[in-house]
Amino acid sequence: MPRRVIELTDDEAALLAKIDFSPPSQPQRTPGYWAAVSDAALELTKSLISRNAIPEVRTKYFTDPAFNIGGRGRSRSGIFEKNGTRGEAIFRHAHFLKYLHYFVYGPNLPSNVLTTFTNRLTEIGFVTSSDLVPLGRFARQLVRENHLDRSDAAEEFFKLALESGLELHEARLIRDSVKASR
Which of 91, 130, 155, 179 could be stapled to 45 by a disulfide with Cβ–Cβ 3.0 to 4.6 Å? Predict the structure, then answer.
């Protein structure tokens, strides 16, 4: 099972400490607030990329169009480019912070949900097509029990399923099942 939080160098940990992952709509605290956050995000991302520290599945989530359900054939990075943000400017963009958070921390689900779902996958062993509907129901149950927003949780379960070794179409079925919950 892959680690959820990636290992950081001391310099990367110092850069991460400068990044506020609050939504961009939060009031800026000082005149140089966003410049400092975006500089740290850029440097941290460049460092992680240069030493190949980001797990491949997390990189694909950002760069592979197949991993962007509803992206109309575009990857998440491609959407930045379509909107006029290119190259390193992507890593400075306020909307990139949620991807940087994922690169570093993995799926954004409560630890008990991560553990419980991962344990279920371990119990199953090799996941077959007949396991997917019950797994989807189990994920929905976890969403309800933990009072999670189903839309946000659906995407995080998609990431978790991918990181747990499920195929793209299998992870998508888990995502869709969670998204359809009431």
Answer: 91
- Helices 129-145 and 111-124: crossing angle in degrees, nearest 10, is 160
| Nearest residue to 77 (alpha-carbon basis) of 86, 21, 38 | 86
- Measured at the CA of 28, the angle between CA 27 and CA 30, to 5 degrees, comes to 140
Taking the chain (182 residues) in runs of 10, the rounded mean pLDDT of each run is 77 94 64 87 98 96 95 93 95 95 96 95 92 95 95 96 95 95 73
Q: Domain boundaries in the chain?
A: 10-105, 111-179
- pLDDT single digits (tens) 90-118: 999 999 999 999 999 999 999 999 999 99
State the Cα–Cα distance between residues 103 and 111, nearest whole angstrom: 17
List, as one string, the DSSP characters of 121-171: HHHH-S--HHHHHHHHHHHHHHHHHTT--HHHHHHHHHHHHHHTT--HHHH
CA separation for the pair 11, 24 (Å, rounded)? 24
Q: For the chain, how many helices (H) and strands (E)?
A: 10, 0
